[in-house]
Amino acid sequence: MSLNRRRWLTAAGATLTSLWLAGCDKLASNSTFTGVLQVAEKWSQRAQRLITDRNALAQEFAPSDISKDFKANGTLRPQDDDYVALLAGNFADYRLVVDGLVEQPLALTMAEVRGLPSRTQITRHDCVEGWSSIGKWKGARLSALLERAKLKPEAKFIVFHCFDTLEQTLDGSGRYYESIDLIDAFHPQTILAYDMNDATLPVRHGYPLRLRVERQLGYKHAKYVMRLEAVSDFSQIGRGQGGFWPDRGYEWYAGI
Ligand SMILES: Nc1nc2c(c(=O)[nH]1)N[C@H]1C(S)=C(S)[C@@H](COP(=O)(O)O)O[C@H]1N2
Ligand SMILES: [Mo]
């Protein structure tokens, strides 16, 4: 479905481009048609903007569509000391830290996170490895959290620091992290999920908090979130590409 959609988008883009080029060739020699050409160009830009609208909602599904066995991927149970210790205490001592380029740094308990304005949605998760699962997610709206923390004007990206080390490295750059821009951060379906399918988020799916950023592929959906950092660029984080997988060759922007 996502592949079909992407193929369609590519085809639609190519058609628009060739229409525009054909128009350019035929009309450029005749000044009478300059106005027509300008109209065509405007139409093309508007159409292109329509089919790539970043604020559009991802498709939502019915309860009957929910996958009986939502696949889990990547880290399934962090072995990192801080996570293991917090899990032993049921995350009572956990604080979700929001810092970096914000006026009001935060350190919220899970009860406080659950008290933020929330959203519930049934969406399809698409992993680059070629599988998809549909799940129901409830979580704090990221927009509400960021409005509390008050981004400074220089803030351009939100980095999600996770508890799990996915690759053992000497410099610690094997800890999972991801980042998104402010369009995705303030998208209405972007939430920090604490419930999945009407129950507390299971450990394998990112307990206690995982990002749902529904217009992006699976690896952008950071599990085991411990800290949000507002930054102007991510050159100083990890290996500088904006995420664990982007540092290893994946696209930073994985929009679907
Ligand atoms: N912290 C962390 N987040 C992560 C990963 C991971 O290994 N660690 N894997 C990513 C990938 S590739 C996918 S497809 C999804 C899987 O989420 P799920 O286990 O709930 O299906 O989480 C993403 N977020
Ligand atoms: Mo994935």
Search tags:
256 residues; alpha+beta; Sulfite Oxidase, Chain A, domain 2; five-stranded mixed β-sheet; five-stranded antiparallel β-sheet; 6 helices; 10 strands; 27% helix; globular; binds the ligand Nc1nc2c(c(=O)[nH]1)N[C@H]1C(S)=C(S)[C@@H](COP(=O)(O)O)O[C@H]1N2; binds molybdenum atom
Summed up:
The protein is of the alpha+beta class and 256 residues long.
What features would you describe in this structure?
The chain has 256 residues and is α+β, with helices and mostly antiparallel strands. The chain has a single domain (2-248), classed as Oxidoreductase, molybdopterin-binding domain (Sulfite Oxidase, Chain A, domain 2, Alpha-Beta Complex), CATH 3.90.420.10. It has helices at 2-28, 34-51, 81-88, 110-114, 142-149, 182-185, and strands at 96-100, 106-108, 118-126, 132-141, 157-165, 175-181, 191-196, 199-200, 210-212, 225-231. The strands form two sheets. A five-stranded mixed β-sheet has the order 2-1-10-5-6. Strands 3, 4, 7, 8 and 9 form a five-stranded antiparallel β-sheet that branches. It is globular, with a radius of gyration of 21 Å. Residues 11-28 have low confidence and may be disordered. The structure holds the ligand Nc1nc2c(c(=O)[nH]1)N[C@H]1C(S)=C(S)[C@@H](COP(=O)(O)O)O[C@H]1N2 and molybdenum atom. Residues 73, 127-129, 218-219 line the site of molybdenum atom.
